[in-house]
Amino acid sequence: MSSRRTGVADLKLHPGSAPFWLLSRMEKLAEKIFIIIHDEFGEEEILARLSDPMFFQACSNALGYDWDSSGATTVTCAVLRRAFNSIDIDLKGAGGKGKRSRLALKEIQQIGREFGLSEHETSKIAYASRMTAKVDSAAIQAGYQIYHHMVFVSKRGEWAVIQQGMRAEQRLARRYHWLSSKVRSFVERPHNGIVGELVHENVLDMTATESEGCRVLSTELATEGPERVKRLFSSIRGHDQATLSRWMGPNGPSESVDYYQVAPQRMDWDALKTAYDVRPTAYEQLLAIKGIGPATVRGLALISEIMFGTRASWRDPVRFSFAYGGKDGVPFPVDRRAMDESIQVLTAAIENAKIGSLERVKAFRRLGRFSARIPTV
Q1: Do the domain assignments include residue 269?
Q2: Boundary (domain end) residue, out of 277, 308, 339
Q3: I need a labelling partner for 301 at 20 to 30 A (CA). Which of 120, 197, 311, 373 fits?
Q4: Which residues contact 74 (CB under 8 A, 6 or more apart)?
Q5: Which residue, among 356, 248, 239, 229, has the nearest Cα to 303 in the 3D structure?
């Protein structure tokens, strides 16, 4: 079974904010673009496209944002949230950047009431919000701290999650895409895409297929009680212990095993006590327990691998376009006139469609298919 991860492209962590003149144009242009997509395909297709890293990146660039900026995620999501509130489609956004991300669960409840979703349906979306954040902060450990979390919800209870983490010391950001219809398990290859540029070494990925045995053993260890785990954990953190790499070559180590030497300082023993009481039977249940965070996930994975030989994946699970330029002048300054003309053209197309004629919209699609066949020089 092939992986659904479509690529990796780390984004530059840029400070500052987008100017109002750009935000207002981005919002107007987004309204026109997504009205057409909605009229042609419906809300579920919009969610599917937002969960596609390449569509989202192209959409952000088309709206005029920096091609390699961390703000491409935060600003575009905020613009889309406002645009969806301004047009007649059954899609809403919850969460956002920083403190706004912590409002996601409350806003999901509000969206559920507005859309008339059942308590069970709303609870499923809230659970998805919590688990996507937990997976990308704890189950995948590439050094990125999640600071942006946006959930887009449809009236049918489908959802897409777009969240972003920062690796401050290297001024990098990484974006994670999820789609409800593609998630069969929150802990095994659940992403629709992870977007970046750098592939880091020694990244713990507990969602990889290769980590299945380690997930099973980590769950079993957690049910054996914190005292048993403490003894095992102490044995892998001995400061006087050496690794076999010392003798693996005449000129020193021939294979890097430095991830063995970065065991967490401590694990959350209270969370492991809860796990012992709850007795999870699957790794997703373990990960869902409050307090089971990156250190505890990593500690259990290292015990599984070093003490019992059950390996986890240490491979990083990790594409651009321009239409109007970027906020910072890269690859060229934003062409305000071109943006305004595009908004006018799309507005005319929508107005014609609303009076009963879809020919102009269909013509745009035919033109797009035709232009894709024109060879570049």
Answers
A1: yes
A2: 308
A3: 197
A4: 96, 97, 148, 164
A5: 229
Tell me, yes or no, whether 107 and 231 share the same domain. Answer: no
Residue whose entry in the numeric block shows the structure tokens 């060229």: 332
163-176 per-position pLDDT tens digit: 999 888 787 888 99
Domain boundary among 250, 279, 308: 308
pTM over 0.85? The answer is no
Q: Give me the domain span that covers residue 293.
A: 209-308
Phi, then psi, of 268 in degrees rounded to 5 = -85, 95
pLDDT tens-digit series, residues 80-112: 999 999 998 999 999 999 999 999 999 999 999
Alpha helix ranges (H) inside 97-174? 104-115, 119-134
The pairing of strands 91-97 and 172-179 is unpaired
- Asked if residue 315 belongs to a domain, the reply is no
Pairing type for strands 172-179 and 145-154 reads: unpaired
Domain count, the chain: 2
Q: C-alpha angle 281/287/292, rounded to 5°?
A: 120
